[in-house]
Every structure is written in C-alpha cells, then in structure tokens.
Amino acid sequence: MKTLLLLYLLIATAPLLRAEEKRALLIVIGEPGNALYQEEFQRQAKVWQDLAAKAKMDADTIGLGDEPSDGDRPGLEKAIADMPKNDGDLWLVWIGHGTFDGRAAKFNLRGPDIEATAVAELLKPFQQRLIVLNLFSASGPFVAPLSGKNRVVVSASRGGEKNYSRLGEKLANSLGSADADLDLDGSLSLLEAILHASAAAKAFYDDAQRVVAEHAVIDDNGDGRGTGTDKFKGLRADGAAPDGALSREIYFLGDSADPLTPEAREERTKLESEIEALRQRKKDVAEDDYYAELEPLMRRMAKLYGK
C-alpha cells in the first residue's frame, strides 16, 4: 500500500517539461440557414480562434466571408489535404447543422454538403493524434467512420437526433468557465469541457421544461461505439472498455501540455485502460490479489515519467 501511494505521488508531481509540439486547428462553419444561427456560429468560431491564438496553434477557418461560387467543399478538402500528416495534434471543429436520412450522414456546408464517409477518407492519411468535434445535429453517425487509434471523436447527438444541437454553443461557453475544471487541478482537459458543456445543454432543456433532444457521445478508445456523456460519473465512465482515458490527457492550452512523448502517451493510455479494467473488477478480487495486480501497472506508469 505504501509503495503504491508513493508511485501515485511521484506520477502526480512529475514536472511538465517537454518540447513544444506544433498543433493545428481547422474550424469548419456550415450553412447557417438563418441570421440567428449565423451570428451564433460566428461567435463560436471567434472563441476557437482566440483560443488558438492563446495556445499558439496554427488555425484556419472555412465557411466565413463570401461564399465561393462552387461552395465551401473544395476549399475544405484542400485545407485538410494541405495539413501536416504526422506532426502534433490536429483539431477539427465542425460547427453548424447536419442531416441523416437513415443511410447517409452529412454536414451541411454552403454549397454541396459533405458526407461522414468522405470526411473519413480525407482523414485516412493522418498519423498523429486527431481530435474531431462534431458540434452539429444528426452527428451521431459520424462517430463510427471517424473513430480510430489515437483519435478522439465527439458528436453532439446520439444516432440521428436532428434538432438543432446546443452542445457547440455550450462548449464555447465552457472553454472560458472556471466551473468546467471538474477536478480542480487548474487545467481544462477536453473531457472536462465536453462533460461540462453536455451538462449545460441538458440544463437548458430542463429549465425550458422540454424533452432533451440531444445526447452527446465521446469515443476515444477506437472501438467506434462511443460512450454517452450521461454515462460518466465524474471523469470516469462505467463499462469494461470505457471511453475517456485519452480525452482526459488532452488540454487546450499549450502551457498545460502533456509531459510525455506521443509514444509514451500511447503507452500511458494503454496502461490506464488496464488499470481501469482492473478497477472495474475490484469488488470481485481479493484485496491482496487486487494490489498485486495493480502494483506492476503503477510501476510501469511511473517508469514513463522517469521515476
């Protein structure tokens, strides 16, 4: 027990020192449909642009300004194709409306829309960590095709829920809210921001005495199934293979950057999954056996931090 406590303390106090990784952000604004949505989508884009500037991220935005004669899809495809394929995190933030007819899920662009399968093809060459935030209605079917190793995929809706999604506007608010720091460690992780925004979206429906019309989903273990944000208790979700481990490690601002290399982060995510699976079995394992299994996992974790 004392040994395990010491290992926990060593990991928790490991210095956050590593070379700055170059990160990129692409913000995609869809067809607003009316002036009210246009104003809100522009507000959200401004929040992300300001965040990128503060975090010293390379940022580009599609869907603002005059509409090209052939719509935004060609420019979007070129922007994704031109992005680095294996250098630092790539963030894709989709703000707008979506549709799902039971077969094809689409994001509504100005001009021709883009299908989930087409986005998946565009992302195939990328080898680095991807964070894809589908902040639009009917975005649930985007989870499976975009899911993969070392990827976080968030969708504002479960399945084809087609009403306007409020997750995007609530997330924009959460990014600047001290209340979103759920574990009170002074840094805002992606998971914390998504859970806080999802709770705020639900509160909107509850306050208006309306049926909740959207249920956010997060997938970061690569199985393509995703976990509803309502399944989380604190920063952990129930289940044998829960999502959340990778998104807990991702922070918006560079000064909260992870101390580990990409390879070490991948190993840490694997270890955290093993530790979580063991934790799920704790009630069925003798105490001595539980800690006998836990100790080598924690030793391997400490080794990642040079302890």
How would you describe the overall organization of this protein?
- With 307 residues, the protein is an alpha/beta fold.
- The chain folds into two domains: 24-258, Rossmann fold (3-Layer(aba) Sandwich); 263-304.
- Helix content is 38%, strand content 15%.
- It contains nine helices and twelve strands.
- It has helices spanning 2-12, 35-55, 73-81, 116-123, 143-146, 167-174, 190-207, 262-280, 287-304, and strands at 24-29, 58-62, 90-96, 98-100, 105-107, 114-115, 130-136, 151-155, 217-219, 227-228, 232-233, 236-237.
- The strands form three sheets. Strands 2-1-3-7-8-9-10 form a seven-stranded mixed β-sheet, sandwiched between helices. It has a three-stranded antiparallel β-sheet with strand order 4-5-6.
- A hairpin with a 7-residue loop joins β9 and β10 (227-228).
- The chain is globular and about 65 Å long.
- It starts with a helix and ends with a helix.
- Mean pLDDT is 85; it is low at 2-19.
